[in-house]
Specification:
Helices cover 65% and strands 2% of the residues. It is an all-alpha fold. The protein folds into 2 domains: 342 residues, no CATH class; 112 residues, no CATH class. It has a two-stranded antiparallel sheet. It starts with 6 loop residues before the first helix and ends with a helix.
């Protein structure tokens, strides 16, 4: 006779194999519909489902903030975004001849971010006016000038229809189709956005030389500061794999990598800046007021009926871009390997974004969207990583870190002189660092390096298990699509989101003709039925654990040899 406590265990052991198979099959069936993307079948069903699932975590979203990770992540994402926002604000000020500038960008970043962090279901998606949004606002200004429209009224009407389209998309759960997004598209889009940041950073250095050609010494110093900050930040961010310093110090170096690089550069810049040799420092932005003298609220009546119909049409490609950008940002932020334990949310995020993109343009402020690569990088900055395996074990999910980072956006407007202590190179170096870190984090970058590597030294992972020619063909296809994004960005204007949308049918219909299903399961890590995706994900984690263990073994071996070399006879 077995005790009552042993009965459940015995029943489990005696369970028929067929029943286990049925259970496993049922679980796999659930995996086919990722969390947050299951069809509810009624209007606003997805939005309501998001809020029902997140409601149980809302209190812990505030209490879980009691961690040093909250502080380090706040500083990281603030430094990473404020410098980019300042650079984009200066650029749009030149494009719109003072209609929109740094003040509008910082105010919208603050207001939209705080509201989104409080009311959204996924506060870890970083919202801000991005580079593509700067292009959109510039195109709206150009069209309004050519057609003789009032810019602020035209922007407000466009924002109104963008919001309406976004409400419709959220209400009818159209975001559920992003479950068909595969790493093929994700990597191309992320690589494209990150390359824009690298380009903008390098272009900013070029502009320094162009504007101050007669001050070659200062320009050279600024260039050196840019390179130095990038190198220091990259070195600090890789400190976890170093054998120097304690684990706590190495974690701190990783958490504050960019901040430390800028801080060191600021101290050196202040020390070497003399009367006869001035280092370029960040110029103080305007105060908490519009860039140009105007009332805050736009007047809808200043736009005629013809202009309203133009706004209706212009809102379509802008909404298409938001659909792609916001959903890919959400997918990359909430990937299973990120180890978020409070769920995944898409429809409610798009609904909140629609509200913000109606309110912002109404006051002459720019649009906002989920930011790449900042959103997944923000999650990583909140994560605790196992040093041995380099795999995320947990994430300090909370609403306080994003709210604090957004509130700090007002500092340059409330205390503008505080920025005069920061070298201008901090802006260009932050853009380059954030872009490089995002690009290096993609599998596309890893496979791109294999093109020029010795095949005998290829790592043992999924994508090297296919014929090498096929692997390189897959990489070349992605690079061509990435180049197409750049061509579309430079030539199509507001229609460039159409090319990004074309990446989905390219993956669905063209790529399967070039590669077998087995090859795609290893290269793309995702199949539309969901089974291959889950298996590949587990295999990828196992490979990372194996590589991490091997790296740790090599580090221990080097440490042992180092110790023996200096051991006394």
């Amino acid at each position: 006779m077995s005790s009552p406590e042993e009965q459940p265990l015995l029943e489990k052991e005696e369970k028929p194999a067929e029943a286990e198979d049925d259970t496993q099959s049922s679980c796999l069936g659930e995996m086919m519909e990722p969390e947050g993307l299951r069809r509810m079948g009624c209007m606003l069903g997805g939005v309501c489902d998001d809020y029902k699932r997140r409601a149980e975590h809302y209190l812990s979203d505030w209490t879980d903030a009691a961690s040093l990770k909250t502080l380090s992540a706040t500083i990281f994402i603030y430094v990473a975004t404020v410098t980019s926002t300042l650079a984009l604000g200066v650029h749009i000020n030149e494009v719109t001849h003072g209609k929109v500038g740094v003040s509008e960008y910082l105010i919208m970043n603050f207001a939209a971010g705080v509201i989104y962090s409080v009311i959204s279901c996924q506060p870890l998606v970083v919202l801000r006016p991005t580079g593509p949004i700067t292009l959109v606002v510039g195109k709206i200004y150009t069209l309004s000038e050519d057609a003789g429209y009032d810019f602020y009224a035209f922007l407000a009407w466009t924002g109104m229809f963008v919001g309406i389209y976004m409400f419709i998309i959220a209400a009818f759960e159209v975001s559920r189709f992003c479950k068909y997004t595969t790493p093929f598209v994700e990597e191309i889009f992320a690589f494209f956005v990150c390359s824009i940041y690298v380009y903008d950073g390098i272009h900013d250095v070029y502009l320094q030389w162009e504007k101050n050609g007669d001050r070659r010494g200062e320009c050279l110093m600024s260039t050196n500061f840019t390179i130095g900050i990038v190198v220091l930040a990259l070195w600090f961010s890789d400190a976890l794999q170093s054998r120097f310093f304690s684990l706590q110090i190495r974690r701190a170096l990783v958490d504050y990598a960019l901040f430390l690089g800028i801080l060191i550069a600021a101290i050196i810049a202040k020390a070497v800046s003399k009367d006869d040799f001035q280092v370029f420092f960040v110029e103080a932005p305007g105060q908490l007021s519009p860039t140009s003298p105007r009332p805050w609220q736009a007047n809808f009546a200043n736009l005629g009926v013809g202009g309203v119909f133009v706004a209706v049409a212009m809102a379509l490609p802008i909404t298409l871009f938001f659909y792609v950008d916001q959903n890919i940002s959400s997918v990359l932020t909430q990937k299973p390997e990120m180890r978020l334990r409070k769920g995944s949310y898409y429809h409610s995020s798009f609904w909140c974004l629609g509200i913000l993109n109606v309110l912002g343009p109404l006051f002459g402020l720019p649009f906002v969207t989920g930011s790449l690569p900042h959103s997944p990088q923000f999650v990583i900055s909140l994560a605790t990583i196992d040093v041995r395996t380099m795999v995320t074990t947990s994430v300090c999910e909370n609403r306080v870190a994003p709210i604090l980072s957004y509130c700090l956006m007002l500092l340059p407007l409330l205390y503008p002189h505080m920025l005069t202590f920061i070298p201008h190179a901090a802006i260009s170096s932050t853009l380059i660092f954030v872009g490089l870190q995002g690009m290096v984090g993609t599998e596309l970058y890893a496979r791109l390096l294999l093109v020029i590597s010795d095949p005998n030294l290829y790592p043992q992972c999924d994508y090297t298990k296919v014929p090498f020619k096929k692997m390189h063909l897959y990489t070349l296809t992605q690079i061509l699509c990435w180049a197409g994004c750049w061509v579309a960005n430079l030539t199509l204007g507001l229609a460039f989101p159409a090319w990004i949308a074309c990446l989905f049918p390219i993956r669905a219909y063209l790529i399967p003709k070039l590669f077998t299903k087995d090859e795609l399961s290893k290269l793309d890590h995702q199949d539309l039925d969901g089974d291959a995706k889950e298996a590949a994900m587990e295999a990828a984690l196992d490979q990372r654990i194996t590589r991490g263990s091997q790296s740790q073994s090599k580090a221990n071996s080097r440490a042992s040899r180092f110790s023996l070399a200096y051991q006394r006879p």
